[in-house]
Design brief:
The complex is a heterodimer of chains A (117) and B (113).
Chain A (H helix, E strand, L loop, with lengths): L2 E3 L4 E5 L4 E3 L2 E3 L4 E8 L5 E7 L5 E3 L5 E5 L4 E6 L8 E9 L2 H4 L4 E2 L3 E6 L1
Parallel strand pairs in A: 2-12
Antiparallel strand pairs in A: 1-4, 3-9, 5-6, 5-10, 7-8, 8-9, 10-11, 10-12
Chain B lengths: L3 E4 L2 E4 L5 E7 L5 E8 L3 E10 L2 E4 L7 E2 L9 E3 L8 E8 L8 E2 L3 E5 L1
The chains are: A mainly beta (117), B mainly beta (113).
């Protein structure tokens, strides 16, 4: 079964400090991994994705994520947090196995990031 | 502008009164989905559609119906809403392959009294 875990409901960091939002996954075959962000009263916006290739993926707004196959993780990172990064972040996974999932995307429960001035 | 639109954005209704939430995308996407978002539970898929006239259940389909008569539209129907369907609903679409980015609508906040 496919699943995603975001072990932290909340992450608090000071502006200018590096941030990490954690994500681990479980899929039967090779994973496709995504990060989305949700600002208050808005829909989800795409940040970045890992399909294949370089384990370090760069995305929008200075975010990046590192795919670690041995640890089944895809943590979201940013070297220097901004107050405007405060939002709800979702990790999502689907698998390359066409027969099992039909392309469904499975989401984690979300992590609320708060960046304080 | 490429977008997914939903209507209404906010709805308060009473138990048992049928309602429809519309979803439309202008990107010629084949794959469309409905999700509900509840605190502490993240996003859970209700139904999805791989193309016109092709729909299937997601994780929480009970109490919902969908149809896909046109490629651009994917309405969500609640035949007899109940209070446990009070939630924030999102429609999403993507072109096709599972590697594609999924685009989300702005959400519909539904309250069932």
């Amino acid at each position: 079964a496919q699943s995603v875990a975001q072990p932290e409901d909340q992450v608090n960091v000071a502006e200018g400090n590096p941030l990490t939002v954690k994500c681990t996954y479980s899929v039967s075959e090779n994973p496709y991994l995504f990060w989305y962000v949700q600002y208050p009263n808005r829909g989800l916006q795409f940040l970045l994705k890992y399909i294949t290739g370089d384990n370090l993926v760069k995305g929008s707004y200075g975010f990046e994520a590192e795919f670690n196959k041995s640890q089944t993780s895809f943590h979201l990172k940013k070297p220097s947090a901004l107050v405007s990064d405060s939002a709800l972040y979702f990790c999502a996974v689907t698998a390359a196995d066409r027969g099992s999932t039909l392309g469904r995307l499975y989401f984690g429960r979300g992590t609320q990031l708060t960046v304080w001035p | 502008e490429a977008q997914v639109t939903q209507n209404p954005r906010y709805l308060i209704t009473v138990t048992g009164k049928k309602l429809t939430v519309t979803c439309s995308q202008n990107m010629n996407h084949e794959y469309m989905s409905w999700y509900r978002q509840d605190p502490g539970l993240g996003l859970r898929q209700i139904y999805y559609s791989m193309n016109v006239e092709v729909t299937d259940k997601g994780d929480v389909p009970e109490g919902y119906k969908v149809s896909r008569k046109e490629k651009r539209n994917f309405p969500l129907i609640l035949e007899s809403p109940s209070p446990n369907q009070t939630s924030l609903y999102f429609c999403a679409s993507r072109w096709g392959p599972r590697t594609d980015t999924q685009y989300f609508g702005p959400g519909t906040r539904l309250t069932v009294l």
